[in-house]
Every structure is written in C-alpha cells, then in structure tokens.
Amino acid sequence: MTQSVRPPKTVALSAPALLVSLLAVAGCSSPIERDSEKLLQRSMINAIEREIEYAEANPGSRRISPSLDLKKLEIREDHLEQISKEFSTDGYLEALRAEHPDEESPIAHLVGEDLLGQQTTLIGLSLEQSIQSSVGNNLSVEIARFSPAIAQSALVEAEAQFDWLFFADAQYQDSSIPQAGQGFGSTPPGVIRNDAQTATGSVGVSRQLNSGGTIEFRNDIGYNNVDSSFFGTSPSPNPAHNADFVLGITQPLLRDFGREATMAQINLARNAERTSVSQLKNTLIDTAAETEKAYWDLVQAYKVLIIRAKLVDRGIEVRDDIKARRVQDARQAQVADAVARVERRRADLLVARTNLRLASDRLKVLINDPDLPVGSETLIVPSQDALAEPISFSLLDAITAGVQERPEMEQALLNIDDATIREQLAKNQRMPRLDLTAQARLLGFDDSFGDAYADTGRSRFVDDWLIGARFEQPIGNRAGEAAYRASRLERMQSVVSYRQTAQQIVLEIKNALNAVSTNGALIEQSTLSRVAQGEALRSLIVEKELTNAGYSVERLNLELNQQETLANAEIAEASALTEYNKAIVDLHAAMGTILRRNRIDFIVPDANQLAPGESALEYEAPEPQDTEMRPEAPSGDG
Predict the structure, then answer these.
(1) 0.85 cut: is pTM over it?
(2) 273 and 154 in contact (C-beta within 8 Å)?
(3) What average pLDDT score do residues 194-217 get?
(4) Architecture of domain 3-153+266-418+486-619
(5) Are 196 and 223 in contact (CB under 8 A)?
(6) CB 397 within 8 A of CB 12
(7) The pLDDT of residue 14 is above 70
(8) How far apart are CA 355 and CA 363, in angstroms?
(9) Can you give the residue ranges of every domain in the chain?
C-alpha cells in the first residue's frame, strides 16, 4: 500500500501568499498590520522565498518504493524458499512456536526472570494502541494542557482592568480641642473648648477608559456637630449634614494616552494564550512522534533478541561438533575458541534481553497506561512489524506544509507581534507625562440628610468646579529612550528568530527526506545481503551433511563465522526497516502533519471547564488497513 506524505488540500504557495496565510493562522493583529513597515514585511517574505526557491524550480514529486529483486543473486527458487523459512526472523519465530507450543509467546523462555525473580509476564501491544494510550495519558501532554487554561485566566485578568470598580469608605472623628481665649467686653480671658463630632463617607464607582483615563462617580456624605464654649452657642444648622455628588475624570494626554497603550497588556496576554496553545500542539506532535519511534525501537529490540537467540542455538550445535572431533583432529585451542564464541553469543543475548526490557519501559513512560505502570515488570512485545511501505513526496509540498503546519512558525509570528506591541508601548512611555484632571461637584447641605439630598435635587448649590493639569518629564529622559531602543532591538531580534525558525524547519524536513531515501535504499541492500549470507550458510550446512570433509575443524570454524555474518546481516535488515519507518515519522513530525496522519484532534482546555483527569485531546481510531503486520496503523496523510 502506498503511503503519501502530501497533506490533504496542501498546495504550493508563493512566498507572499504563504506569509499572509501564516499571519491568518496566527490569528492576531500582525506586526505588519500594526506597523506597515516595508522592511519588516520584505524580510519575512524573503525568509520564505529563500527556502522554497530551489523547490519551486522543481515542484514535481518523487516516489520511494523499496523494491526487492532477488533474481540478481542468481539463487534457485527452492533455495530461496528454504532461506526464507530457515534464515529469517519469521522463520525463527515459527521454529520457536513449534519448540514451545505451550507458551503464550514464542519468546517467553528467552526473556528470563524479571527484577522480582519471577517468570516475566508478556503483553502484546499494537502501534495504534500505543498511540491511543499516549494521546490520552502521556504526562508531558497532561502538563502542557494546563498552560492554555492558565493563559486564558491571565487574559481574563488583563481584560478586567476595564471592569467597573465599586468602592466605599467611612470615617468618624470625635475631638475636644482646648485653646486660649481672649476677653470680650465683660467676659474675662480663659480656656475655650471646641468639641466636634465629624463623620464622613463616600460610595461610588470608577472605570478605566480605553483612552487611558479614569472616570469616577461618587456620592460623598458628611455629618458635623460642633459645640463651642466661646459664645455658649452652636452654629446653625448644627448638627449639619451634607450630601454631594461628584463626577471626575483623569485623562493622560501624552504618556499612557490611547488605545495602544491601554490595550498592550491585553494584547500580550492574548498572544500568550495563543502561544500556549501552539506549545500544547508542539508537545503533542513530539509525544506522538516519540511514541511511534519508541514502538519501532521495541520492534527492533524484539527482532535482535530472536536473532541472538537463534545464533546461540546454532553455535551450540557447531561447538558440540568440534568437541566431538577431539579424538580426531580438533586441538584444545580450537575447542576452547568454539566454547568462547558460544559464551560471547550468550553475553550478546543477555544484552539483547536487557535492551528489550529498556525499550519496553521507555514505551511505558510514553503511553502511561494505568494498567501498565513503569514500575510493573510486565514486558511489552510488539504485535506489529515494520513494513517497507512506498511513499511519494514533493520537496516543495513538504516545505510548504512544514511552514504552514508547524506550531513553531505561529509562535515566531506571535513573538514578532509581542515585540511590536512592546515597541509601541515603549515609544509611548518615552513621551512626557501631561495629565488633565476635571471634576464637578453637586452640593447639598442642610440639618438632615434628607434635606441635604433635596438640596442636590433642587441644584441649590452648584459651585464646585475643578480643572487641572500635571506635567512631568525626566531631564534627559534616559530611561525612556533606553527602553525604546531595547524594544526596537528586540523586535529586530524576533524577525531574525522567525527566519531561523523557518530555516530550521526546512533543515529538519530535508534531513527526514534524506533519511527516508537512504533507509528505503538500505532495505533492499540489507535484504539482499541477508539472503546472500543465508545462501552461504545453507551451502555450508549442505556440504557438511553430504561430505565428511564438512565436519573438519576448519569447515566448522567457517560455519561459525558464517553464522555471525548472517546474524549481523539480519540485524542490519531489521535496523533498515525500523529506521525507514522512524524516518517517515520524523518527516511527518517535521512537516507538522503527524497529528492528522494519526487522526488526532485536540481540544484546547477551558479554564472554567478543566477538571482533574479530563483529557485535552481526542483520538479517532484509524480504520484497519489491508496489511498483515500493521493492520491498524495509520497510513498516509490521514
């Protein structure tokens, strides 16, 4: 079945059109729209043009189809069938099943005891099951999914600066103040006592304006009761009550003026939310890619274990033949060498067994299945094999998909937007401060609060107006100018970072394509090598059985050598297959299409809905494919 790396509905775009689409993907007020600087626009377009220039000149697609032409080896058909049966991993598995029919897995006797000193429990796992579990349970994804909800809450916090603010305050004072008095008429001099009880309070609302100013409306009330011993009488009305309505506004005219200054923190918070969503997607891409690659590493370790086990069995047979020739021509050194080679193979088998356990534990960490914790000694064995599926690709389509789909590109654009916001804010902050203050007060005054409020309704007292201004400018304004210069440099830096991100994505895509191409070719070469080495060993065994000379120590040593050469060829073939599949994973990860390839959709968590144990992702199981070893593995573009 052919696997295509072209994402659906992806077309090659010109650099300007591609940049516009990227800005639309970013979903923000772009730096180009905010600034309109031709140099910035040209620099960003050039970054894309340079990377797709050569690909645009050759937009056609290539097909990598690992083929196998065994005729070039000039081996008879019946010999090829025998080699496939006796000198291949599948053939070894069939032989192991026949030797141990009671075991659930043909390798159960090969893995040995676990860390608890018990017989190891094996469980088969498919690639689709691994990805499904990883999508729902991986801890890195679990951690990353909180970031959008946290950023969403931070955005709400930033937007709350324009909410209405309700305030209230109250104060009571009781004073008795003595002072020296002078005589008046027949009244002798003496100490005068002024007693007073005063209560004040206010209640109101205020709100920050988009222009940067603040508007306030409040109701002030007061109570004043005075008792003086000078005249022996009190002022009238006493106690006195006042009720005032105050409307005030404070408006910056230079620094902190305008929507750009007041909305800066909200725009930055909104970009931070989008960045966190992109980072979540990036984490999911990495996790899906790591899981699939870890699965292929498990497949490789599984095959190596089988190959090493078969190599030990073959070595034991030849070693015993050499021992049997002690009475004829086998010298002690030759016997000892045969024994040493078998023991070395046993050591390699122990290493292969450990590598399989390590690969299993690595996959456990990624899938984080509650039924397969890392601490368990259950050993995962793959239920699918790597296949040499053909693929078609276009370098232009691959680069276009990478620039459009990779979340790093959106993050780079958001970084430019953040830098532009900070530059505009710094430009505003280097201006002098000139704040205008205006206030109007509607007064009410009488011997009770009811009468005082009635006075305000009759507009009896409207005689309190205030207007003022405050100017402030640091001499030299070094702080403001330095901050502005730094913000301009940061924006220039963000543009260079954008270009570097595009370059890095193209490099990753090309590296992955080269790996796919190389490993696709290596599959055929390694298979031909394995078949040829199998024919050499088969011929030696046939000669040994047909002639007495075949049992000479020299021929038996040659057979030992050929066994090891064949095992190395088998491992190289298995490695080429798994590396080919891993290279395809790297290619889809580099293009940013691995989620669509595996039919993974993720839902951005909402801060109000996020609950413990809730997944931020959705996984749609892929449809079964008509292949033997990978029936449920996603194929193609999804």
Answers:
(1) no
(2) yes
(3) 91
(4) Up-down Bundle (1.20)
(5) no
(6) yes
(7) no
(8) 12
(9) 3-153+266-418+486-619, 165-181+188-265+431-481
